[in-house]
Design brief:
The complex is a heterodimer of chains A (735) and B (227). Chain A has 735 residues and is α+β, with helices and mostly antiparallel strands. Chain A has a domain of 168 residues: Phosphoribosyl-aminoimidazole Synthetase, Chain A, domain 2 (Alpha-Beta Complex), CATH 3.90.650. Helices cover 34% and strands 24% of the residues of chain A. In chain A, strand 2 and strand 3 form a beta hairpin. In chain A, helix 7 packs parallel to helix 8 and helix 7 packs parallel to helix 10. Chain A is globular, with a radius of gyration of 26 Å. About 1% of the residues of chain A have low confidence. Chain B has five helices and eleven strands, in the order βαββαβαββββαβββα. Chain B has a single domain, classed as Rossmann fold (3-Layer(aba) Sandwich), CATH 3.40.50. The C terminus of chain B is likely disordered. Chain B is 25% helix and 26% strand. Chain B has a nine-stranded mixed beta sheet, sandwiched between helices. The chains are: A alpha+beta (735), B alpha/beta (227).
């Protein structure tokens, strides 16, 4: 980090902006539009605001292709979070955010501040945060470094979420060599609010006050947005100064105080936004830009944690737990008093101005005076000419598994980190605080009841990088379909999605191809499931030493349950219930867990996905659940039918007696669009009348025996033998 | 009967506790800020879970200096019923209203799980609606719930029958499987499991409701005695 202030001419000649992630062309463009050479502070602001993280300069052309609107969407992408109407005057607010880079460097704080940041996005809209989710991806080689990384990321998410009192109700953890050096830490928060209370991050009205509230500004996380938009190198040591430190206690106070402002002081509030990536500059410039006004701020008034901070440092600090509010002139004291009641620091630090200039004062001098659009709307966008990666041009031949010892293969599958129970990790998250959690982690989706209504919300976070690596378009569509499948299995109708697009360096034609193709698949699937994209985030440059991660869009999806009595969970409930398989099973082994188990790699083209058939099956299952004809439901994904049966039997150690025409290998096939359902004997006729030939009877839930008769083999064991492996394998591997 | 649910900065189970005792169990109850200095007019004080003052330094260590604590001590000394749950339990031990201390779980990890318990003393104001030795399941959610007291204190606690709840499958290393215990007088109880999270079938069970119903029954009796 540069500490000395260079003159505009020195900046031009010495090009320090290159270290801050700007290109020479970008610097020149900025200077040209400004009509003079930028000073050091201005150059710093440019580096933060023109980073991919803030400007979406590579991803914007792709994000524009997303489908973002239907009649339920009240607010789409562009604000802190998106909002969807759920009826009875209520709305759901949600967004996901990636904290991959900070978590790789400082796992505890990186993960904790990821949660902290996304929570601020939710309450800045005026919503009470009611649940969080996390989607994590790590390497599958459990060396000491990786074990510590996993432990500390989980500890950080729990440390922040548990303390602030927002339940973590769902999520996923994946293990794959593709993430060994670039872990993914994506966090999502869901809020609930009254429709009428929606706030926007805008600073309008000449003379209105800009109020800063929350933690003091320190030298932590300076220029983190640029840091997040660069590749890692093994040669360079970890850049710890660019990682922020979180304080959930402060954020709890901030949440409660800001919600009081948005609910009880509507006359005073013009706009509110959190200080996330690129801190004070992004929040203030975006608020001014969105409202079409200028702004002046006096940096001497900003609460500072340490003396001697430069304007560059104050503006680009990513200290956590800070919010910026625009308050109508005359109401300043009322708001300052409110914050004081919560023991929070709040100051008037600026005013909204006529015109479009963004001015900053420091020690009585003007240190920045630029059109605000230079930081927001004027950022150039880039498209790379996409090129299909070699591996996709010549896919490996279809994988044809041979299973010699079914029992042994079954047990090995259950012990795979991606299949085995994640309980030892998610039990470290408080899943029940706020006492609304109907389905805690361990099911297909988390479900929380919405107070003062008869509704519940289901939520899930899914990603399938290994499948996108084989076919980004189909893989992208599958990820959306799987998220919807998870929600439907609980009895929810999917409402909409948020996404974190985790990819490699977008200036590489192959990476750009992956981005473009996966967006295509996502768009097709979101239209099919009527789930517009209402918010999201982009994390590019997930590369270490030029090796990129799998293209990994994380899809966070929220669904609505209209009837609290029609919520379905995954576990087998009682012996004697009849087990049905909905959706067709093919021979789809490319990209499957069985393929990885037997060959150590995922390869081949993607087969076994039919968007139309998937939608039909989901509609059927939703109808059956709403008719109260399903006693347990589970979607089939990693590990296929084999994994699903044990996941359903695990809780009560109930088994299955089944006789099926499926083959031994088909037990492990990963054809999409399938559900395993159990039905009480007394409901069988009603169930079959609706399901007809779309669900085939597989067998009957037993008290513990697991006897499976297949077309070409059989398995006779006790469910408890399998559930022990399923329950303990991952905890043992991570010890 | 009127219950106060204390709210410290950083408490996060205060609303849950209010919901359980008021909306579900049907008692009159309201939130009282820890910045307040009076508990006048209350028959029962509930100290909620959460991370009071961020639990910085040590769980409950800063909360014991909150303005409300003097009133709380007087309330307890005069025989008023006080229930501390999770962080509330930690605060009560820090404040000296209950013996012993809560250390880090032996796993050194936060644990959130439904936990089987046994009601080992049903002759208290907090447990009179349970059967003696009744098996119940309540959720736990804590990092520092490992109950410790020195050997003399522990034998005194046992001799006085102060233990009310014991873990069936000790999750955190607590001595004598102690999940909840009272003071010697029996009017102050601290417990790590969360009864307020187990009061609705929709959310997984109602085994915690008995704690609130016991207190409602006990305070009704007390009001009669005073008349």
């Amino acid at each position: 980090m540069l500490q000395t202030e260079l003159t505009p001419e020195q900046i031009r000649d010495q090009k320090p902006y290159l270290q801050l992630g700007l290109t020479e062309a970008e610097y020149n463009l900025f200077a040209e539009r400004l009509g003079r050479l930028p000073n050091y502070t201005e150059m710093g602001l440019q580096s933060g605001m023109w980073s991919e993280h803030c400007s979406y300069k590579y991803s914007k052309p792709i994000l524009k292709t997303f489908w973002t609107k239907n009649d339920r969407v009240l607010m789409g992408p562009g604000e802190g979070a998106g909002v969807i109407r759920i009826g009875e005057g209520k709305a759901v607010v949600f967004k996901a955010e990636s904290h991959n880079h900070p978590s790789a460097v400082e796992p505890y704080e990186g993960a904790a501040t990821g949660i902290g940041g996304i929570i601020r996005d939710i309450f800045s809209i005026g919503a009470k945060p009611v649940a969080s989710l996390d989607a994590l991806a790590f390497g599958d080689e459990f060396d000491a470094h990786n074990k510590n990384l996993i432990d500390q990321v989980v500890a950080g998410i729990g440390g922040y979420g548990n303390a602030i009192g927002i339940p973590t109700v769902a999520g996923e953890v994946q293990f794959d060599p593709g993430y060994q050096k670039n872990p993914l830490v994506n966090a999502m928060t869901v809020g609930v609010m009254d429709e009428k209370d929606i706030q926007k991050g805008k600073a309008a009205g000449v003379g209105n006050a800009i109020i800063y509230v929350g933690a003091k500004t320190g030298r932590d996380g300076i220029n983190g947005a640029s840091f997040a938009s660069a590749e890692f190198s093994d040669a360079e040591d970890a850049d710890r100064s660019a990682v922020q430190v979180g304080d959930p206690f402060m954020e709890k106070l901030l949440t409660d105080a800001c919600l009081e402002v948005t609910h009880d002081h509507k006359d005073a509030l013009v706009g509110i936004q959190d200080m996330g990536a690129a801190g004070l500059v992004s929040s203030s410039a975006e608020m001014a830009s969105k409202a079409g006004y200028g702004m002046t701020m006096d940096l001497d008034l900003i609460p500072q944690r340490e003396p001697g901070m430069t304007p560059f440092e104050i503006m680009l600090s990513e200290s956590q737990e800070r919010m910026l509010l625009c308050i109508r002139a005359g109401h300043e004291q009322e708001i300052l008093d409110l914050f004081k009641g919560y023991d929070l620091d709040a100051v008037v630090c600026g005013r909204v101005e006529d015109g479009h200039q963004y001015r900053l004062l420091h020690h009585g001098e003007v240190v920045c005076d630029i059109p605000v659009s230079l930081l927001t709307d004027d950022v150039p966008t880039y498209t790379t000419v996409p090129e299909k990666p070699e591996r996709l041009k010549n896919p490996a031949p279809d994988f044809e598994p041979v299973i010699e010892d079914l029992a042994a293969t079954y047990k090995q599958l259950l012990a795979m980190p991606n299949i085995a129970s994640k309980r030892s990790l998610y039990r470290r998250y408080d899943a029940q605080v706020q006492t609304n959690t109907v389905i805690a982690p361990g099911g297909d989706a988390g479900v929380i009841r919405v107070r003062d209504t008869h509704k519940a919300l289901a939520m899930t976070a899914d990603s399938n990088g290994r499948l996108l690596a084989l076919d980004p378009e189909i893989g992208g569509a599958i990820t959306v379909a799987e998220a919807a499948r998870n929600l439907v299995a609980t009895g929810a109708e999917p409402l909409g999605i948020t996404d974190c697009l985790n990819y490699g360096d977008p200036s590489k034609p192959e990476v750009y191809y992956e981005l473009q193709q996966s967006a295509k698949g996502i768009v097709a699937a979101t239209k099919k499931f009527n789930t517009p994209v209402i918010s999201g985030n982009v994390s590019l440059y997930n590369e270490t030493d030029h090796h990129g991660i799998h293209p990994t869009p994380m899809i966070g999806m929220v669904g609505l349950i209209e009837d609290l009595t029609a919520i379905t969970t995954v576990d087998f409930k009682q012996a004697g219930d009849i087990v049905y398989l909905a959706g067709n099973t093919g021979d789809d082994y490319n990209g499957s867990s069985l393929q990885y188990l037997q060959t150590g790699a995922y390869a081949g083209r993607l087969t076994g996905f039919d968007l139309e058939a998937e939608k039909q099956t989901q509609d059927l299952v939703l109808t059956l659940i709403r008719e109260h004809l399903v006693n347990a439901a589970h979607d089939l994904s990693d590990g296929g039918l084999a994994a699903a049966i044990v996941e359903m039997g695990a809780k009560r150690e109930l088994g299955l007696i089944a006789d099926t025409t499926l083959t031994t290998t088909q037990l492990f096939s990963e054809t999409q669009g399938r559900f395993l359902l159990t039905v009480k004997p007394e409901d069988q006729a009603a169930f079959e009348a609706i399901a007809k030939d779309q669900a085939v009877q597989l067998g009957v839930v037993s008290t513990g025996d697991f006897d499976l008769k297949l077309a070409d083999g059989e398995l006779n064991t006790q469910m408890s033998q399998l559930t022990t492996i399923y329950s303990e394998a991952l905890a043992c591997a991570l010890k | 009967m009127k219950a106060a649910v204390l709210t410290f900065p950083g408490s996060n189970c205060d609303d849950d506790l209010l919901w359980a005792v008021k909306d579900i169990a049907g008692a009159d109850a309201e939130l009282v800020s820890a910045k307040s200095e009076s508990l006048e007019g209350f028959d029962l004080v509930l100290v909620p879970g959460g991370f009071s003052y961020g639990d910085y330094l040590r769980s409950g260590a800063i909360a014991k200096f909150a303005p409300i604590m003097t009133a709380l001590k007087n309330f307890a000394d005069n025989g008023g019923y006080v229930l501390g749950i999770c962080n509330g339990f930690q605060i009560l031990t820090e404040a000296g209203l209950l013996p012993g201390a809560l250390q880090w779980n032996t796993s050194l990890e936060f644990i959130c799980e439904p936990e089987p318990l046994k009601v080992v003393n049903n002759r208290t104001a907090f447990s009179n609606q349970y059967a003696q030795n009744q098996a119940i399941t309540l959720p736990i959610a804590h990092g520092e719930g490992n109950y410790y007291a020195d050997a003399d204190t522990l034998s005194e606690i046992e001799a006085n029958n102060q233990v009310v709840f014991r873990y069936a499958d000790n999750p955190n290393g607590s001595l004598n499987d102690i999940a909840g215990l009272t003071n010697k007088a029996g009017n102050v109880l601290g417990m790590m499991p969360h009864p307020e999270r187990a009061v609705e079938a929709l959310l997984g069970g109602t085994d915690g409701l008995g704690v609130f119903q016991s207190l409602i029954a006990a305070t009704k009796g007390a009001a009669h005695a005073a008349n």
